[in-house]
Amino acid sequence: MADILAKDGKHLLLGNEAITRGLFEAGVRYSSTYPGTPSSEVGNILEKEAEKGGMYFEFSTNEKTALEVAAAAAASGVRSFTFMKHVGLNVAADPMMTLAYSGVKGGMLIMTADDPSCHSSQNEQDNRTYATLSLLPMVEPSTPAEAKDMISEAYRISEAVNLPVIFRTTTRVNHARGPVDFGPFADTPAKGHFVKDDPKYVNIPAYSKPNRTRLLEKQKKAMELSEESPLNFIEGEGDVGIITSGVSYTYVKEFVSDVSILKLGFTAPLPEKKIADFMRNKKAVIVVEELEPYLEDTVLRISAQEKLNVPVYGKRSGHFPREWEYSPDTLTAISDIVKVQKFEKPLSKADITLPGRPPTLCAGCPHRGTFAAVTREMKGKEAVYCSDIGCYTLGIQAPFHAADFIICMGGGAGAAGGFSEVTDQTPIAFIGDSTFFHSGIQPLVSALFNNHKIKMIIMDNRSTAMTGHQPNPGTGRDFGGIATEPLDIESLVKGIGVKFVSTVDPYDVKATRKVVREAIDFDGVAVVIAKRACPLELKKQKMLKVKRCEVDHDKCIKCYTCLKTIACPALIKDKDGSILVDDVQCIGCGMCANVCPKGALEVKE
Amino acid sequence: MKYSVQIVGVGGQGVLLASMVIGNAAMKAGYDVAMSEVHGMAQRGGSVLSTVRFGDNVTSPLEAVGGANLLMGFEPAETARSLGLCNKDTAVLMNLDPVLPSSVAAGFDTYPEIDDIVKAVRAVVPKLITIRATDLAVEAGKAVAANAVMIGAVAAAKGFPLEKELLLDTLLETVPGKFVDLNRKAFELGHDYYIKNMS
User: Looking at residue A206, what is its pLDDT?
Assistant: First the structure.
């Protein structure tokens, strides 16, 4: 990976690396996040580099807190940056909506990394809608190089109108890679001072009313900036115009010819005069954007207000879909209106049946033991598995099928309470350690408060694993010159008053199962903490002690309990039906040995 | 000139490293470069796809379906799955070392015979070139250099616009110092193999 703090040069950067570089060049001194793909790499780089670059960085417990700490930094005059995945902004929307009323002193950006096509998300919501809802300005880059430069420009906008600016990206910007020229770092203050100003920062009704009016005035000023902004520009010539933004612009620019393009980077407020002027005298206007017709509906409204007699094509006309990300061939839909490059005919499929390759829980993943224990114990009984967001979402797969209801971070624990009231089924909430701190504590408190007899299984693998092994309150932090103690989940759960709390080692499947049985039989809220570090994380830290697992073929009766129960990818069923261990993958965790009824599997040092 | 490489495989096979080497070499050659990577699930044994586009006036990080000039298949089943990225003129290089999905290893699903995969792919791609990258890497000194074998091989692909030396230098700058000799050897073995097997 390129040295993100290098003085100069041209580097081939991932969008998220370019964004991180942009933060240093813009003199950002405070940053915060809760990890979420496709934004996660920014945090992983800042964990290592922020201190060296003179920036404070933290993983907050959730996006709401991340936005709040960054808001305080900006209110004190320090340039701040908070970032999250699109659904994370739902969590942070509450503070954002009223922070818009207060405004900021130092520049502040809120990055939302949207995920069209749901590459690694539970939905594909279009967060540009949040700019409409909050009245905050918004910018959208198209490429890594533009993303880096746009960071500095967005801070200028933020400080010109004293509002946080939404920096909206999509997967194909965050995870695109392209050449980026490094520029100098801006010199900004790392320390600020909060100046008491109740009418601005204390949004009681008496103050929020004038703040609402002031926000609308700021929005007018932001629109003037948008009209003049270098981020909104016209290129090319033709009687048909294309209005586009984000990664869609790269497809239009490269594959459509003989058109005039209005490329929008400052997308809230939209430059309405510029759009109207662009549309005048055009034979037709096409709007190319992914997901919701955000630009298109405004273009149609401007067209109606200005009485422009120009046909507008896009999603409303049925040319483009609303769902999924676009690619160059999506443009074929407008080839009857403009000149689109002819694309090659793809080859037909190979005539062969191939096995699927979904992502799966790793060899030696402790979640396997937990799922094995719980699902075995619940066999023949009716459970509702309320799962959550993390690696353990993969528990949906065979042989566990341990996910019946998943909506959002912390959502399983909340839903379990509802199931406990309206059904006679046993609601079991699976939740990871990081997700527990993110939003699992409140529903647990609520379950106690309302006597929902939920069973919560906290799958504590000592890491925020799915997004790339970030630390969380349960691990403590040790980076950027700050070291804190790990927060003990068991004490916390006992402290809020849960009467049944037990910590188990999921590698000991039998013992885990016994405790799960007690938890289920317990008449009240019960919490089982399955604690065992993620082997991938241990491997990264060079702390994984690999043992060997051997099969005694004389003892093995080929019952396949190991495969049916743990289904570890390191276990292989050979052509003659015998069980083999893949030494490359096996870490010697012993879960398969633990469930083997004949003692045919043995872990050796 | 515009050139698109699609690289497919399984997490851990070095797909991202190969795309970085080609992308960096293209940048050094003075071309525009636009790439796209699928992250996130790679570490959990899922399929991986990386796109490298370079040339004049290249801005789009994605290639159109069927638009690849070259498909680098690090794994047979993944290669067979990805033929829709290719057209009749696409050069296809397929590594013959399988990575079994866990469902197959556990006996819940089956993985076709390699010969059957080759036959099925060749029926669609007559000019298919197959390679045993791991065997050649072992010959070079270590199995982990299989991706260097693959990069060396594509350097010999017909119409591949980047100079062999540039690609090799970029590869050697990318790998850790102690693996330079291993990677150089693996690269050369892959390169020679491709030339010998070109139809």
Answer: 98
Domains and CATH numbers, chain A: 10-228 (3.40.50.970), 232-340 (3.40.50.920), 366-540 (3.40.50.970), 548-604 (3.30.70.20)
* Cβ contact, residue pair B83, A179, below 8 Å: no
Handedness of CA A357, A359, A365, A371 (dihedral sign): negative
B112 contact residues in A (CB cutoff 8 A):
352-354
**H or E element: which one contains B39?**
none
Helix axes B180-197, B164-174, angle to 10 degrees: 150
- Positions of chain B with pLDDT lower than 50, given as ranges: none
Would you say residue A599 has pLDDT above 80?
yes
Taking the CA of residue A438 as centre, how many other CA atoms within 13 Å lie in the half-sphere pointing to its CB? 30
Residues of B in contact with A176 (CB under 8 A): 34-37, 61
In a mutational test of the A interface, the residue from B15, B44, B134 whose CB has the highest number of chain A CBs within 10 Å is: B44
Q: Output the pLDDT for position B127.
A: 85
pLDDT at res. A86: 98
Tell me which of B39, B47, B88, B113 to substitute to probe the interface with A (most A C-beta atoms closer than 10 Å).
B39
**Measured between alpha carbons, how far is A229 from B110 in angstroms, rounded to an integer?**
58
Question: What is the pLDDT at residue B43?
Answer: 63
In chain A, DSSP finds a helix count (H) and a strand count (E) of 21, 27
Give me the residue from B63, B105, B109 closest to A582, CB to CB: B105
Eight-state DSSP code of residue A438: I
Contact A48, A208 (CB under 8 A): no
* Residues in CB range of A313: below 8 A, 6 or more apart: A284, A285, A286, A287, A319, A334, A337
* d(C-alpha B147, C-alpha B72), whole Å: 10
Q: Is A44 on the interface with B (CB under 8 A)?
A: no
Separation of alpha carbons A294 and A310, rounded Å: 18
> Inter-chain contact B23–A177, Cβ cutoff 8 Å?
yes
The pLDDT tens digits of the residues spanning A407-447 come to: 999 999 999 999 999 999 999 999 999 999 999 999 999 99
Q: Do B72 and B194 contact (CB within 8 A), yes or no?
A: no
By the CB < 8 Å criterion, does A584 face chain B? no
A465 near A30, Cβ under 8 Å?
no
Look at residues A456, A444, A446, A452 and name the one whose alpha carbon lies nearest to residue A523.
A452
pLDDT score for B41:
59
* Phi, psi dihedrals of residue A56, rounded to the nearest 5°: -85, 140
Mapped onto helix, strand or coil, the DSSP state of residue A441 is helix
Selected residues 443-482 of chain A with any CB under 8 Å from a CB in chain B: none
Amino acid occupying residue A313: Y
Cβ-defined contact of A119 to B40 (cutoff 8 Å): yes
Question: How far is Cα A593 from Cα B189, in angstroms, rounded to an integer?
Answer: 43
Whether the predicted model's global pTM rises above the 0.90 cut: yes
**Would the ipTM clear 0.90, i.e. be above it?**
yes
Q: Is B77–A354 a contact, with Cβ atoms under 8 angstroms apart? A: yes
Q: What pLDDT was estimated at residue A9?
A: 96
pLDDT in tens, A492-537: 999 999 999 999 999 999 999 999 999 999 999 999 999 999 999 9
What is the predicted pLDDT for the residue at A358?
85
* Separation CA A572–CA A551 (nearest Å): 11
Residue ranges and CATH numbers for the domains of chain B are: 2-197 (3.40.920.10)
What are the residues whose beta carbons fall under 8 Å from the beta carbon of A123, sequence distance 6 or more? A87
Taking each helix axis as running N to C, give the angle between helix A441-450 and helix A411-422, from 0 to 180 degrees, rounded to the nearest 10: 20
Nearest to B121 among A41, A350, A362 (CB): A350
**Which residues is A472 bridged to in the sheet?**
none
The partner residue sitting opposite B36, judged by closest CB among A176, A329, A359, is A176
